[in-house]
Structure formats: C-alpha cells, structure tokens
Amino acid sequence: MTSSQTILVTGATSGFGAALAKRLVKEGHRVIATGRRTERLTALHHTLGDALLPVTLDMTDISAIRNVPQQLPDAWRSVDVLINNAGLALGVGPAQDCDPNEWETMVHTNISGLIEITHAFLPGMIQRQQGYIISIGSTAGTYPYRGGNVYGATKAFVSQFMRNLRTDLLGTPLRVTNLEPGLCGGSEFSDVRLGDSAKAAAVYEGTAPLTPDDIAETVSWLLQLPAHMNINRIEMMPVCQASGGLSVQRT
Ligand code: NDP
Ligand code: 8X3
C-alpha cells in the first residue's frame, strides 16, 4: 500500500492522532480526521489543507458513528484505512475506589465506539476488496498494573477483538493490526487520566518515553508493507521501560 490512500483517524485532535494526520498527509494520503474538539480539527485543516477532512465525532455517540459512512462526501466515502486511535484512561486508583461513571466512559469510548466504527466501515471495505484496520491498543491490555483495572481491560478487549476480526476476515484481502504501545509522552493522555498537568508531567520525569511521532512512524511503516503481509500485533515500549514481574504481599 504505497499509493495515496483515504485514511480515517479517530481522535485526531491531539497526541497520536494529530501526529498520524500530519505524517499521513505529508506522505500523500487523504485523511479524515475525527474528534470532539471541532476547533482543533479546523486548525488541522488550516495547517494541512484539503487533503484533510475534519469530521466532528463523539465516539460515545453510537448513532452518529453508524451514520458516518453515509454522511461523508462522495469523494471521501471509500475509506481504505481505518485507524482506531481515539481512547482514554481515567484515574489510577484501585478498583474499589474508582468512579463507575469513569469506567463507563472508558468502556463506551475504547470498546463500544471502536467496534461500532469498525463495523460501519467493514461492508464498504469488503465490497471494494480493499481495506486495513489498525487499532491502537496498549501494553496495558497485556500487562496488569495497579490502577490499570478497567483501562487495561478495555485494551485487552481491543486486542482480542482485533485477533477475532482477523480470523473473520480470512479469505478477504483486508488486513488487521493491533498496535500496542507502552509509555508514551507528548500527548494529552496523562492530563486526561489524572486531570492535573503537574501530576501528568511527573509521569514522564526522568524517562525518555515513546513519542506520538514514533507511533506515526510505525503506522507509516505498516502502510508501506506489501499487500500479502499482515502484521497481527506490535508491542512497543521505550528502552527505559520493561515489565515488572508479579507482586507479593508479605505479612
Ligand atoms: P490524547 O489524550 O492526546 O488523545 C486522545 C484522542 O482521543 C483525542 O484526540 C480525543 O479527542 C480522542 N477522544 C477521547 N474521547 C473521545 C470521544 N468520546 N469521542 C471522540 N474522540 C475522543 O492521548 P494519546 O494520543 O496518547 O492516545 C491515543 C490512543 O493511544 C488512546 O487510545 C490511548 O489509550 C492509546 N495509548 C496511549 C498511550 C500513551 O502512553 N499515551 C500508550 C498506549 C496507548 P477529543 O477529546 O477532541 O474528542
Ligand atoms: C497507556 C500506557 O502504561 O499508561 O496505554 O497504561 S499505560
């Protein structure tokens, strides 16, 4: 897939999604950029020009998601690549102290929104016999950590959904990849999660985390692979991060 593609990126208003939009337009693709913050999408449009189509979309609004394919302008309707990037974590407390409303928000955004938009674009991709679905999972979907409770579980769902999708799509030329980054700075992820910019900055203190540009680089590589190759999943971490083993409570 080296020629110009029409690529829909969810959550393009900041972080990974904004970096993806910029990189992919620079590489000659057309990008449909979605998110709730219309002013950010408008700013991206001004920066990147008509190769970017801004579409305001709340990933918790299921009926709006179902209408997206029909509401796109004709010239943008044949989406070749869907990048399921929109998502969030809320809170770092133990499960027993969490706000269940925050759990609902993560489930609605990271799971329900993701499966709905995937379902919305699958029929067109199958009809055209052309398509690639890339989801942004997380190492949190594989490695448990304190306070990861529902966020990590949503990413575990994404991981298994993508594996199952790949199985269902066997026999079609469609491709499916779950991209699972670890610690990544330079986005609003920790600001959203912690609701406090000083605490968010502290998460990355003394580290050299992955960056949104690293994610864009990886996706750019995926898109340049020959059509017969499917990368099922990529787990990536900064060099300063590794898994920490099991915990033991001693008396
Ligand atoms: P950001 O907070 O910078 O970006 C999140 C994006 O998701 C924003 O564009 C936001 O747009 C969008 N989004 C959130 N909720 C909704 C919603 N209800 N409707 C539509 N869009 C929504 O974080 P990142 O760029 O870091 O995160 C991108 C993805 O990467 C997420 O899925 C995250 O879980 C995952 N990830 C992040 C890692 C990290 O360490 N940063 C590591 C591994 C995975 P808006 O608010 O305008 O709607
Ligand atoms: C984001 C990475 O480790 O904060 O998905 O959960 S982590």
TrEMBL record:
- State the source organism's domain of life: Bacteria
- Keywords, sorted A to Z: Oxidoreductase
Q: Which residues form the signal peptide?
A: none
UniProt lists the family membership as follows: Belongs to the short-chain dehydrogenases/reductases (SDR) family.
Annotated protein name in UniProt? Oxidoreductase
Q: What is the originating organism of this protein?
A: Saccharibacter floricola DSM 15669
